Amino acid sequence: MKINGFKMTTAMAVLALGAGTASAESWDMPMAYAATNFHSEMGVVFADRVREYTGGEIDITVHAGGSLFKGGEIKRAIQTGQAPIGERFMSAHANEAPLLGWDNLPFVATSYEDNEKLWQAARDKVNAQLADLNLVALYTCPWPGQGFYFNKPVGSSQDTQGVKFRSYNTATATFAEELGMIPVQVEAAELSQALATGVAESFISSGSTGYDRKVWEHLTHYYKVNAWLPRNYVMVNKGIWDGLSADTQAAVQKAADETGADCSSKSAELADWYFEQLAANGMSVEDAGPEFLEELQAIGAKMTADWLATVGEDGQAILDAYYAD
Ligand code: PCA
To answer: Which residues line ligand 1 (CB under 6 A)?
Structure first.
Protein backbone atom coordinates (compact mmCIF):
# COMPACT_ATOMS: atom_id res chain seq x y z
CA MET A 1 0.00 0.00 0.00
CA LYS A 2 2.64 2.42 1.11
CA ILE A 3 4.83 1.52 -1.84
CA ASN A 4 1.94 1.93 -4.27
CA GLY A 5 1.02 5.35 -2.94
CA PHE A 6 4.59 6.34 -3.15
CA LYS A 7 5.11 5.08 -6.70
CA MET A 8 2.17 7.22 -7.70
CA THR A 9 3.85 10.23 -6.20
CA THR A 10 6.99 9.65 -8.22
CA ALA A 11 5.02 9.03 -11.40
CA MET A 12 3.06 12.19 -10.84
CA ALA A 13 6.27 14.12 -10.27
CA VAL A 14 7.69 12.85 -13.54
CA LEU A 15 4.49 13.82 -15.38
CA ALA A 16 4.64 17.28 -13.86
CA LEU A 17 8.23 17.61 -14.99
CA GLY A 18 7.38 16.43 -18.49
CA ALA A 19 4.73 19.07 -18.77
CA GLY A 20 7.24 21.68 -17.66
CA THR A 21 4.98 22.90 -14.90
CA ALA A 22 6.31 24.15 -11.60
CA SER A 23 3.81 22.30 -9.42
CA ALA A 24 4.99 21.06 -6.02
CA GLU A 25 6.52 17.62 -5.85
CA SER A 26 6.40 15.31 -2.85
CA TRP A 27 9.53 13.25 -2.44
CA ASP A 28 9.77 10.36 0.00
CA MET A 29 13.33 10.05 1.29
CA PRO A 30 14.26 6.66 2.78
CA MET A 31 17.22 6.77 5.18
CA ALA A 32 18.89 3.72 6.69
CA TYR A 33 19.82 4.70 10.23
CA ALA A 34 18.01 5.48 13.51
CA ALA A 35 15.71 8.53 13.48
CA THR A 36 17.63 9.98 16.45
CA ASN A 37 21.02 9.52 14.75
CA PHE A 38 22.65 12.76 13.59
CA HIS A 39 22.64 11.58 9.94
CA SER A 40 18.86 11.23 10.06
CA GLU A 41 18.37 14.47 11.99
CA MET A 42 20.43 16.23 9.35
CA GLY A 43 18.26 14.62 6.69
CA VAL A 44 15.30 16.41 8.24
CA VAL A 45 17.27 19.70 8.28
CA PHE A 46 18.04 19.13 4.60
CA ALA A 47 14.37 18.54 3.81
CA ASP A 48 13.44 21.77 5.62
CA ARG A 49 16.06 23.70 3.69
CA VAL A 50 14.96 22.25 0.35
CA ARG A 51 11.38 23.26 1.10
CA GLU A 52 12.54 26.75 1.98
CA TYR A 53 15.02 27.30 -0.86
CA THR A 54 12.73 25.91 -3.56
CA GLY A 55 9.82 27.98 -2.27
CA GLY A 56 7.89 24.80 -1.48
CA GLU A 57 8.39 23.32 -4.93
CA ILE A 58 9.98 20.18 -3.49
CA ASP A 59 8.54 18.76 -0.31
CA ILE A 60 10.71 15.97 1.11
CA THR A 61 9.46 13.54 3.77
CA VAL A 62 12.21 11.66 5.60
CA HIS A 63 11.65 7.99 6.53
CA ALA A 64 14.49 7.02 8.88
CA GLY A 65 15.58 3.66 10.28
CA GLY A 66 15.02 1.70 7.08
CA SER A 67 11.25 2.09 7.59
CA LEU A 68 10.33 2.70 3.95
CA PHE A 69 13.11 0.63 2.36
CA LYS A 70 15.67 -1.36 4.34
CA GLY A 71 19.25 -0.06 4.19
CA GLY A 72 20.26 -2.71 1.68
CA GLU A 73 17.36 -1.81 -0.65
CA ILE A 74 17.63 1.97 -0.70
CA LYS A 75 20.14 2.43 -3.52
CA ARG A 76 18.20 0.16 -5.86
CA ALA A 77 14.93 1.91 -5.02
CA ILE A 78 16.45 5.23 -6.07
CA GLN A 79 18.17 3.85 -9.16
CA THR A 80 14.87 2.49 -10.40
CA GLY A 81 12.88 5.61 -9.42
CA GLN A 82 10.78 3.83 -6.79
CA ALA A 83 12.07 6.57 -4.51
CA PRO A 84 13.42 9.81 -5.99
CA ILE A 85 15.94 10.42 -3.19
CA GLY A 86 17.45 8.60 -0.22
CA GLU A 87 20.45 8.03 1.97
CA ARG A 88 22.81 5.13 2.49
CA PHE A 89 26.29 4.08 3.51
CA MET A 90 28.52 4.59 0.47
CA SER A 91 30.97 1.71 0.91
CA ALA A 92 28.07 -0.73 1.20
CA HIS A 93 27.94 -0.32 -2.58
CA ALA A 94 31.58 -1.25 -3.12
CA ASN A 95 30.65 -4.86 -3.92
CA GLU A 96 28.96 -3.55 -7.07
CA ALA A 97 31.29 -0.61 -7.76
CA PRO A 98 34.61 -1.11 -5.92
CA LEU A 99 35.60 2.54 -6.29
CA LEU A 100 32.87 3.39 -3.76
CA GLY A 101 35.03 1.76 -1.09
CA TRP A 102 37.40 4.78 -1.22
CA ASP A 103 36.44 5.74 2.35
CA ASN A 104 36.89 2.26 3.78
CA LEU A 105 40.68 2.03 3.43
CA PRO A 106 42.14 1.24 6.87
CA PHE A 107 44.41 3.89 8.42
CA VAL A 108 44.58 6.05 5.26
CA ALA A 109 42.53 8.99 6.55
CA THR A 110 41.87 8.83 10.27
CA SER A 111 40.93 12.42 11.15
CA TYR A 112 38.00 14.54 9.95
CA GLU A 113 40.47 16.82 8.20
CA ASP A 114 42.16 13.98 6.31
CA ASN A 115 38.81 12.38 5.56
CA GLU A 116 37.67 15.63 3.95
CA LYS A 117 40.92 15.78 1.98
CA LEU A 118 40.38 12.22 0.79
CA TRP A 119 36.79 13.05 -0.21
CA GLN A 120 37.99 16.03 -2.26
CA ALA A 121 40.51 13.72 -3.96
CA ALA A 122 37.82 11.10 -4.63
CA ARG A 123 34.81 13.29 -5.37
CA ASP A 124 34.94 13.60 -9.19
CA LYS A 125 35.60 9.90 -9.66
CA VAL A 126 32.89 8.95 -7.20
CA ASN A 127 30.41 11.21 -8.99
CA ALA A 128 31.34 9.71 -12.37
CA GLN A 129 30.84 6.23 -10.93
CA LEU A 130 27.48 7.21 -9.46
CA ALA A 131 26.34 8.70 -12.78
CA ASP A 132 26.94 5.25 -14.32
CA LEU A 133 24.57 3.88 -11.68
CA ASN A 134 21.93 6.52 -12.54
CA LEU A 135 22.60 8.38 -9.31
CA VAL A 136 23.69 11.88 -8.29
CA ALA A 137 25.21 12.47 -4.84
CA LEU A 138 23.86 15.64 -3.24
CA TYR A 139 25.92 15.53 -0.06
CA THR A 140 28.04 13.10 1.91
CA CYS A 141 28.68 13.00 5.66
CA PRO A 142 31.25 11.01 7.67
CA TRP A 143 30.58 8.72 10.59
CA PRO A 144 33.02 9.03 13.50
CA GLY A 145 36.10 6.75 13.40
CA GLN A 146 35.60 3.01 13.34
CA GLY A 147 36.68 0.73 16.19
CA PHE A 148 35.93 -2.78 17.44
CA TYR A 149 33.24 -3.93 19.82
CA PHE A 150 33.68 -7.23 21.70
CA ASN A 151 32.16 -9.14 24.61
CA LYS A 152 35.58 -9.71 26.21
CA PRO A 153 39.01 -8.08 26.36
CA VAL A 154 40.97 -8.54 23.14
CA GLY A 155 44.73 -8.09 22.97
CA SER A 156 45.50 -9.73 19.63
CA SER A 157 44.06 -11.99 16.94
CA GLN A 158 44.56 -14.90 19.35
CA ASP A 159 41.43 -13.64 21.10
CA THR A 160 39.35 -13.19 17.95
CA GLN A 161 39.48 -16.69 16.46
CA GLY A 162 36.01 -18.07 15.74
CA VAL A 163 34.24 -14.96 17.01
CA LYS A 164 30.95 -14.18 15.22
CA PHE A 165 31.30 -10.76 13.65
CA ARG A 166 28.67 -8.42 12.26
CA SER A 167 29.97 -6.81 9.04
CA TYR A 168 28.44 -3.87 7.19
CA ASN A 169 30.11 -4.32 3.81
CA THR A 170 32.52 -6.63 2.00
CA ALA A 171 35.62 -4.84 3.28
CA THR A 172 34.65 -5.37 6.92
CA ALA A 173 33.87 -9.01 6.22
CA THR A 174 37.38 -9.39 4.79
CA PHE A 175 38.86 -7.63 7.78
CA ALA A 176 37.06 -10.02 10.11
CA GLU A 177 38.17 -13.10 8.18
CA GLU A 178 41.78 -11.95 8.39
CA LEU A 179 41.31 -11.92 12.17
CA GLY A 180 39.91 -15.45 12.15
CA MET A 181 36.37 -14.25 12.79
CA ILE A 182 33.16 -15.39 11.12
CA PRO A 183 31.40 -12.47 9.39
CA VAL A 184 27.67 -12.07 8.87
CA GLN A 185 26.26 -8.93 7.25
CA VAL A 186 23.60 -7.23 9.36
CA GLU A 187 21.97 -3.80 8.99
CA ALA A 188 22.55 -1.30 11.80
CA ALA A 189 18.75 -1.26 12.24
CA GLU A 190 18.89 -4.98 13.12
CA LEU A 191 22.09 -4.94 15.10
CA SER A 192 20.59 -5.08 18.61
CA GLN A 193 18.61 -8.15 17.67
CA ALA A 194 21.65 -9.84 16.12
CA LEU A 195 23.59 -9.27 19.34
CA ALA A 196 20.70 -10.36 21.55
CA THR A 197 20.21 -13.62 19.66
CA GLY A 198 23.92 -14.41 19.39
CA VAL A 199 24.00 -14.10 15.58
CA ALA A 200 26.88 -11.68 16.20
CA GLU A 201 29.11 -11.08 19.20
CA SER A 202 31.36 -8.37 17.85
CA PHE A 203 31.46 -5.71 15.13
CA ILE A 204 33.33 -2.68 13.85
CA SER A 205 31.61 0.69 13.90
CA SER A 206 31.66 4.14 15.41
CA GLY A 207 30.64 5.02 18.95
CA SER A 208 27.56 6.45 17.28
CA THR A 209 26.02 3.14 16.22
CA GLY A 210 27.01 1.49 19.50
CA TYR A 211 25.13 4.26 21.30
CA ASP A 212 22.08 4.14 19.00
CA ARG A 213 21.77 0.39 19.47
CA LYS A 214 22.57 0.38 23.22
CA VAL A 215 25.13 -2.31 22.66
CA TRP A 216 26.24 -2.19 26.31
CA GLU A 217 23.28 -4.49 26.91
CA HIS A 218 25.26 -7.24 25.16
CA LEU A 219 28.92 -6.24 24.81
CA THR A 220 31.60 -5.05 27.18
CA HIS A 221 34.62 -3.67 25.30
CA TYR A 222 35.19 -0.97 22.70
CA TYR A 223 38.62 -0.45 21.14
CA LYS A 224 39.02 2.98 19.56
CA VAL A 225 41.00 1.89 16.55
CA ASN A 226 39.84 4.84 14.41
CA ALA A 227 40.55 2.80 11.31
CA TRP A 228 38.52 4.95 8.87
CA LEU A 229 35.63 7.42 8.77
CA PRO A 230 33.14 6.03 6.27
CA ARG A 231 30.52 8.25 4.69
CA ASN A 232 26.80 8.18 4.15
CA TYR A 233 25.50 9.93 1.09
CA VAL A 234 22.20 11.44 0.07
CA MET A 235 21.58 10.48 -3.52
CA VAL A 236 18.92 11.35 -6.05
CA ASN A 237 17.78 9.49 -9.17
CA LYS A 238 19.74 11.01 -12.05
CA GLY A 239 16.80 11.08 -14.46
CA ILE A 240 14.67 12.94 -11.93
CA TRP A 241 17.56 15.29 -11.12
CA ASP A 242 18.23 16.05 -14.79
CA GLY A 243 14.55 16.84 -15.23
CA LEU A 244 14.65 19.68 -12.66
CA SER A 245 15.14 23.26 -13.80
CA ALA A 246 18.58 24.80 -13.27
CA ASP A 247 17.14 27.08 -10.59
CA THR A 248 15.61 24.19 -8.67
CA GLN A 249 18.82 22.18 -8.93
CA ALA A 250 20.77 25.16 -7.58
CA ALA A 251 18.35 25.58 -4.67
CA VAL A 252 18.53 21.87 -3.76
CA GLN A 253 22.31 21.86 -4.11
CA LYS A 254 22.61 24.88 -1.81
CA ALA A 255 20.57 23.02 0.80
CA ALA A 256 22.78 19.96 0.27
CA ASP A 257 26.07 21.87 0.54
CA GLU A 258 25.01 23.55 3.77
CA THR A 259 23.68 20.31 5.25
CA GLY A 260 26.77 18.30 4.27
CA ALA A 261 28.99 20.85 6.07
CA ASP A 262 26.75 20.95 9.15
CA CYS A 263 26.52 17.16 9.26
CA SER A 264 30.32 16.76 9.18
CA SER A 265 30.69 19.29 12.02
CA LYS A 266 28.02 17.50 14.02
CA SER A 267 29.77 14.16 13.55
CA ALA A 268 33.08 15.61 14.81
CA GLU A 269 31.35 17.31 17.72
CA LEU A 270 29.64 14.10 18.84
CA ALA A 271 32.54 11.63 18.37
CA ASP A 272 33.90 11.83 21.94
CA TRP A 273 30.46 12.27 23.46
CA TYR A 274 29.50 8.84 22.13
CA PHE A 275 32.53 7.29 23.84
CA GLU A 276 31.49 8.96 27.09
CA GLN A 277 28.02 7.44 26.77
CA LEU A 278 29.44 3.96 26.14
CA ALA A 279 31.65 4.31 29.23
CA ALA A 280 28.81 5.77 31.33
CA ASN A 281 26.80 2.67 30.47
CA GLY A 282 29.53 0.41 31.79
CA MET A 283 31.63 -0.39 28.74
CA SER A 284 35.40 -0.36 28.80
CA VAL A 285 36.45 2.18 26.13
CA GLU A 286 40.14 2.19 25.34
CA ASP A 287 42.75 2.28 22.61
CA ALA A 288 43.66 -1.01 21.01
CA GLY A 289 46.84 -2.51 22.49
CA PRO A 290 50.06 -2.38 20.46
CA GLU A 291 50.00 -6.03 19.38
CA PHE A 292 46.40 -5.88 18.14
CA LEU A 293 47.00 -2.53 16.46
CA GLU A 294 50.04 -3.82 14.62
CA GLU A 295 48.02 -6.74 13.30
CA LEU A 296 45.18 -4.44 12.24
CA GLN A 297 47.62 -2.20 10.40
CA ALA A 298 49.13 -5.11 8.52
CA ILE A 299 45.66 -6.31 7.47
CA GLY A 300 44.77 -2.73 6.54
CA ALA A 301 47.77 -2.35 4.25
CA LYS A 302 46.79 -5.56 2.49
CA MET A 303 43.19 -4.38 2.10
CA THR A 304 44.30 -1.07 0.57
CA ALA A 305 46.57 -2.94 -1.85
CA ASP A 306 43.69 -5.25 -2.79
CA TRP A 307 41.38 -2.26 -3.34
CA LEU A 308 43.96 -0.61 -5.59
CA ALA A 309 44.39 -3.83 -7.57
CA THR A 310 40.63 -4.13 -8.05
CA VAL A 311 39.85 -0.50 -8.83
CA GLY A 312 42.98 0.15 -10.88
CA GLU A 313 44.00 3.57 -12.23
CA ASP A 314 41.14 5.56 -10.75
CA GLY A 315 41.91 4.27 -7.26
CA GLN A 316 45.59 5.08 -7.64
CA ALA A 317 44.71 8.58 -8.90
CA ILE A 318 42.57 9.17 -5.78
CA LEU A 319 45.36 8.15 -3.42
CA ASP A 320 48.00 10.06 -5.42
CA ALA A 321 45.89 13.23 -5.26
CA TYR A 322 45.30 12.66 -1.54
CA TYR A 323 48.97 12.20 -0.67
CA ALA A 324 50.16 14.97 -3.03
CA ASP A 325 48.29 17.61 -1.06
N1 PCA B 1 27.75 3.06 11.73
C2 PCA B 1 27.15 2.35 10.64
C3 PCA B 1 28.12 2.49 9.51
C4 PCA B 1 29.34 3.09 10.07
C5 PCA B 1 28.99 3.47 11.46
O6 PCA B 1 29.72 4.10 12.22
C7 PCA B 1 26.94 0.91 10.93
O8 PCA B 1 27.56 0.36 11.85
O9 PCA B 1 26.20 0.26 10.18
So the answer is: 89, 143, 168, 188, 205-206, 208-209, 230
Which ligand 1 atom is at minimum distance from the Cα of 71? Answer: 9
Do residues 122 and 258 lie in contact, with contact meaning Cβ atoms separated by under 8 Å? Answer: no
Between the CA of 241 and the centroid of ligand 1 the distance, in Å, is 28
Find out whether 197 and 263 touch, Cβ atoms under 8 Å.
no
- Decide: helix, strand or coil at residue 190: helix
As a whole-number percent, the residues of the chain with pLDDT over 70 amount to: 93
pLDDT (tens digit, 9 = 90+) per residue, 264-304?
999 999 999 999 999 999 999 999 999 999 999 999 999 99
pLDDT in tens, 182-240: 999 999 999 999 999 999 999 999 999 999 999 999 999 999 999 999 999 999 999 99
The letter for the amino acid at 92 is: A
Does any domain span residue 217?
A: yes
Give distance in angstroms: CA of 45 to centre of ligand 1: 21
Cα(79) to ligand 1 centroid in Å equals 22
Minimal CA–CA distance to 207: which of 125, 112, 271? 271
* Full-model pTM: 0.92
Q: Of all protein residues, whose CA lies closest to atom 4 belonging to ligand 1? A: 205
- Cα 181 to its chain centre, rounded Å, is 23
Residue 3 lies in a domain: no
What DSSP letter does each residue of 22-59 carry, written as one string? ---EEEEEE--S-TTSHHHHHHHHHHHHHHHHTTTSEE
Q: What is the largest CA-CA distance in the chain?
A: 65
What is the total count of domains within the chain? 2
Q: Which range of residues forms the domain containing residue 257?
A: 25-144+229-272
CA of 165 to the centre of ligand 1 (A): 14
In 3D space, the residue among 70, 46, 54, 11 whose CA is nearest the CA of residue 235 turns out to be 46
